[in-house]
Specification:
This protein has about 200 residues and is an all-alpha fold. It has ten helices and no strands.
Length: about 200
């Protein structure tokens, strides 16, 4: 990808909005995640617009940034993609909504979303699954205490993301890469369980 001023603006915005946020269970700056998502999308040949949506995919959900401002600064296409992959974490009273409800809605959104939005969701799941594998190697089963749900619920969710990905993008190379990451996560989880049982 050649230099893009719009991509640079999106990168700076994401870095600023996520500056005080870290990845769950680590001191790693959160910005590493949307940057990886963006790089995955670029590596698979998606447009700069889609890569920008990858950079910004968590700013509404995690930081309360307004979709209208994304539309104004980066265009309607980017805003539509970000909207399609954003979860509503709180109800009207500000209480946290159940994990299962949010994930069910996310999967429903994925079935109806544009193919570009599906790709962003896949890149997000791919990087998260890869991080789970790495963190399980270093931290073992204690990793799961940092998350709302344990390995069975998490794996079930990633398998469903993969299933919808296959339905929507069929034989795209990103589907194969996600399948490999889900398989690696399954294996890492199984190996961790075996180690505990010994």
């Amino acid at each position: 990808m050649e230099y893009s001023e719009l991509y640079e603006k999106a990168l700076r915005l994401a870095a600023t909005l996520h500056h005080s946020q870290t990845r769950k269970g680590s001191d790693l700056p959160y910005i590493t995640h949307p940057v990886h998502v963006s790089v995955i999308l670029l590596r698979h040949g998606f447009s700069t617009e889609v890569a920008i949506a990858g950079l910004l995919h968590d700013v509404v959900e995690d930081q309360g940034y307004e979709l209208a401002r994304i539309k104004e600064r980066f265009g309607a296409r980017v805003a539509e993609i970000v909207s399609s992959v954003s979860e509503r974490k709180e109800d009207a009273q500000g209480a946290e909504r159940p994990w299962e409800t949010r994930k069910r809605e996310a999967l429903e959104q994925m079935r109806e979303a544009s193919l570009d939005a599906v790709a962003v969701k896949m890149a997000d799941a791919l990087h998260n699954a890869q991080c789970f594998v790495l963190d399980l190697c270093h931290e073992g089963p204690m990793l799961w205490k940092h998350f709302n749900r344990g390995p069975e619920a998490q794996l079930d969710y990633y398998r469903k993301v993969l299933q919808i990905s296959r339905e929507r993008l069929e034989k795209h190379p990103l589907v194969d890469e996600l399948a490999g990451a889900v398989q690696a996560l399954t294996q890492a989880t199984d190996e961790t369980d075996i180690a505990i049982a010994r």
